[in-house]
Each structure stands twice: as structure tokens, then as C-alpha cells.
Amino acid sequence: MYNVQTLNKISSIGLDRLGESYACGDTVENPDAILVRSAAMHDMEMPKSLLAIARAGAGVNNIPLDKCSEQGIVVFNTPGANANAVKELVIAGMLLSSRKIVNGIQWAKTLKGNGDAVGKMVEKGKSAYAGPEIKGKTLGVIGLGAIGVLVANAAIALGMDVIGYDPYLSVDGALQLSRHVKHVTSLDEVFSGSDYITVHVPLTPDTKNVIKAENIAKMKDGVRILNYSRADLVCSEDIVTALEIGKVSAYVTDFATDTVLGVDGVIAMPHLGASTPESEDNCAKMAADEVKDYLENGNITHSVNFPAVNMPRTGEVRYCILHKNTPSILEKILSNFSNAKANVENMENKSRKDYAYTIIDAVGATKDLTEQIKSIDGVIRVRVIK
Description:
This protein is of the alpha/beta class. It has three domains: 1-82 and 277-305, NAD(P)-binding Rossmann-like Domain (Rossmann fold, 3-Layer(aba) Sandwich), CATH 3.40.50.720; 83-268, Rossmann fold; 306-386, Alpha-Beta Plaits (2-Layer Sandwich), CATH 3.30.70. It is built from 13 helices and 16 strands.
């Protein structure tokens, strides 16, 4: 029996995939795994039993990755599971930013009570809320991951020209990207050539404030900027200043902060990107599948702190070894198998920066072997699956 703790409400469609061998709930003790959406975990004491955390979503800013890596806790996310939901909201955001729809609706509400005069008042005042069509305009997409590719392709279908920037564009992403998208090699090309700019990159020290005064100055006058990824990708103070002087026509964000709320030209949404039942179901299913495969087979897919390793089961016993990525450590691990006269039938080893993961399927292993492997300097965690 495996114990899975839920820190947020997780779709039952996902939890049902775990099966009868799993006890799930928010009060589960000694969890083998945790499923989480937005709950903050940085101040949480990680149970010694905890093997994995799965974030039902893409961002993992609410999870202490360094602490988890040091303790041998594999952290998963669910890239692409909410991509369509976010894509649809980005397209809506472009339309809202162009046509002044929000302001127009708010103004129309003020006409209540004027009876038959409302029609004439609407015709007289509607010109204040006119705006351009998006067809024929250029959209700059920063980040061509699961969401960025869908946004770029949708914009092409709507008759826009699209410039895409991503120095880490994957093979899968490239294959899915419309051939009509112009892939550029510098951000400056996006900044200078776009009527609309949308950001779809993870928040890292390198991407923080990628939209700031220095880069806004390179953009077209009247540019419209959309941020459905992370608040700190855009410098709020700089975007407010740019709106005040007319350099930026509109800023659409899914992250309502005190700095941008109430500012003319800002359309701030309450983090609605993945708030669809379809997205929540997709994220929960992917998170559950990742946890199940890791707990039962030791396979890692879509981890953000350890390398991806998948290997079919062979042999009598599977050893799952999380360790530091240091010279000769693999040699030391294998020498213990040799000394124990255990036959290695299959093995997979991969590294990711400072950390590595090794799966070994063996026959004839002794009980003492596990403790011997644990004693190797640099080994973080050893798990045996029979």
C-alpha cells in the first residue's frame, strides 16, 4: 500500500488512476508521495517517508527544489497538460487588449437607467473603445514550449505574422511548430518587430524581468504585451511607466499584483490560465501517472530536479539509486554489486547538473548490498523494488 498526500484539491479523475493500492487524501500520514497544485511548500518539513512530489501544473516555484534534491525527493511537473487552456486565454487576451472590450463593457453598464436613450448614447460614445484587428499584425512569442507553440500556431491560423524566439527549442517543439512561424535567434528581433509580445518561459534568474525598461525601449510604439507565465518575468514598475507615457498600449497579465491593479491599460486576471475542468483533469492524470510509475517501477518522467530515466523491468530486484554526479561514483556502485556476487542484468544511468540517477536490475543480490550502496559517499537515497 502506498500513501499519497494531497495538499490541494486534485481531480478525482487523476486520483482514480492510482488504483486500490493507494491511500489518498489531505490527512494521509507518512506519505510516499505528495500531489500539489499551488500550496506553498517552502516552509514545510519534508517527511522522511517522502519519495516524490508531483505538481499538477508546469511551474514549481512553490516547491523547495534544492531541499528536495538534497533529500532524494524527486519532483515532477506536468508540462503541456494545461497548454490548451492557457493558449485559449492568451488569444482572448490579445483580443481584449486590442478592442478595449473590458473598458467598453464597463462603460456600457453606466448607461443603465437611461431607458430608450441608451441606443443613442451607445452610438455616440462607442468610438472611445475602438481598436485594431489582430489579423495582419505581428505577434512575438518568447518561449516555444508546449504553450508557446500552440499560441504561435493559433495566431498563424488567425491571420497573424508570428516571430518565435527560443534558444532551447526542442525537436518535438520544432516538429509541432507551424512552418509559417519565423524562428529568430535574438530577443531584439522580437522586441523591434512585434505589435504584440507574449512571454512563455519559466522564471529563472536569467528570465526575471525579461520585459523591462531597457527592452521596452526597443519595442514599437503602442506595443501590446501579454504575460501568462510568471509575474516577475515583467518588471511591473517599468510596465506602468511605459503605459503612462504611451509606449505600451496595453498590458494583459494573469498575475494581479498591487502595482498593476487599477492602472489604465492593464487587464489583470486572477490567475485563470489553467482554470478549466479539462486542464485540471489533464494535470491530475499526468501527475498521478508520474508518481505511480516512479513508486512502482522507479522510472522518472518529467522531473525538474533529477534526470529522466525509463527502463523495462528485468531481473529479480530493481535498485533505484539517487546520487551526486561525481567522478567514479558509478564505478563504486557497480563494484559493490560485483563484490556481492550479484549479476547486473540491465542498467540505466543519467545525470542532470549536480545530480544523477541509476537504475540497476540484478539477480542474486544480498540484503547487505543496499546498506553497502548507501554508505558510498555521494549516494543520497537507495530504494529497492521487488
